Amino acid sequence: NHLINFSGYTRVTIKNGRLIGGAYGIYHSSTTVRTRASFENLTIMNTYMNGGDNYSGTGIRVNGAEFVEAVGCHTRNSARIGISVLNQSPINNTFGGRFIANTTYESGGTGIYLHSMRGGEVRANQVFKACQTGGACTPSGGGGLAVMREWFIPAGGNIIEENTVRDSKCAGIFLYSENNSVRNNVSTGNCY
Question: Is the pLDDT of residue 136 over 60?
């Protein structure tokens, strides 16, 4: 159950909306078509897990990204991830992006998960109570804000600044990519 599914589209802008329920609030997945998407001033609440789909329960999920911008978006009570942008096999390429002034509150997994971003901007986001599913704190559980890459993808060179991650049952900010500029972030009350 996808409230908005734009899989296969190359340019999409979604603004000023409120989405409640669904396995995904906003969804794009393609292994052949990379998208340029812009999300602005959205509220997405109460996404839920859907059977064997390990990625359901996500507020915004874009798999197959070329460039993604999320500005002023709010996710609340996501069963899995608040905002997730990545490129999975066979695309295995970097994407560009801007993630500015978004808020995630009470996600079962990571609050904001950016995988294989290169030369992007992650600024003034707030993540509260990420990684709530699973009980115990584990350092391998990701982070409230995670900027990651595969070992063979030359991602990195991102600006990560003025973000706040609080009260998460995982690492506050988890970085696994090179040459990022990381400044003036606040991580408090998290497991690691």
Answer: no
